[in-house]
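#dry-run=false #mode=assembly
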Amino acid sequence: MKFRWVGALLLSAAAYYVYLPLPSGVSEPWKLMLLDALFRSFIRASHVAHSLGACHRVHLLNRAISWVEVTDARSSPTVHVTDSTLGAVPTRVFQPIGGAGLKRGVIYFHGGGWALCSGRMRSYDLLCRKMAEDLDAVIMSVDYRLAPEAVFPDQYHDAVAASRAFLSSEVLQRYGIDPERVCASGDSAGGNLAAAVVQELISDPTLTVNFKVQALIYPVLQALDFLTPSYQQNQDVPILYRPLMVQFWLEYLGADASLEPLLLANNHSSLDQPGISAATRSKLNWTALLPAERRKSFQQVVKETGSGGLVGKLPGLTDVRAAPLLAEQDVLRRTPKAYVMTCEFDVLRDDGLMYVRRLRDAGVSVTSDHYEDGFHGCMAFAFLPVMSSVGQRSLNNYIRWLDQNL
Ligand SMILES: *[C@@H]1O[C@H](CO)[C@@H](O)[C@H](O)[C@H]1NC(C)=O
Ligand SMILES: *[C@@H]1O[C@H](CO)[C@@H](O)[C@H](O)[C@H]1NC(C)=O
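#status=ok
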């Protein structure tokens, strides 16, 4: 009897911890709640360890994720998997076994706020295996350096170095990749790196091979407006809460974590910031760039006065290499055909949708694949044990798009 009471008490405590009111319409809310509870526990534990001085919270979080998730390079009967390097950057390579002729090639950048995760993680390993199998393509999953040891532009430089090596005739020949059919892709912070790399390399006259397509999955693309309609609408939606995204940005740009409230209030992009021109503001002016059904009745938050001079101290905020949405139209115009995946329940939805609009305005052909029931990170949870339904749907559509366009 006593045990039954204790059991019931523990169960309701667990349910209380896991339960979270979610907006109606989000795909499989219980799965998202469980994922969120797990992620929250990891974050809390790492904050405790951090405040006890045991180690940096990001390290602990990464160690926990690695412990649960990192897998060895294991080949299967259909895909040969090896850990190698591209331009001195560690990279896991997935090569389909068999078949004749040259294969298509994809360089992939994993997500994790420039601070977490790895291409060797189970979820990314499974993603790249599936891509290699379904597309009969060589997939290279890049382990660029992470914050806090590496800060902008280190991650970007690693992504560029790996991409240059990927596009070199030596690597293309070694892996039997068709130079006419190569793609840059990534999700979340990895989508940020993929977009930035494409912008950088597409204008490089020394390269003889360049990307045919770019495929961006819920990418992070700007750090000047943390109150876009999607940031406002989804600030309490797991797993990427609004403050967490701001913390990732501060960490990436090597800035002090104490700036978080200031950025959350959009004080860093107030009108008295001399470092932000009207031309720059127009590139992320969502009142002009988003369709009415996404703008809804949300109001733009532009402060008259804020923290003058902050942009001068944190130049990464307006650097296109960190914020590819701020690129000039002339650069966007040269970038290849694009696929941009966005989710309704994601603070980054509008980063992606504004990029779709800016690429189209520049004359680039773009497939905008929007999931009305999607949440940030869903594609990484397309596999067991979570097997998110919207994750599986989006993964299949992403692979289909690559199959038809690469
Ligand atoms: C933001 O700036 C306003 C002035 O526009 C100021 O009153 C407020 O305290 C600032 N908030 C933060 C968090 O810095
Ligand atoms: C943003 O767009 C709106 C609507 O097109 C326009 O009225 C406003 O002046 C623009 N603001 C900036 C900073 O470009």
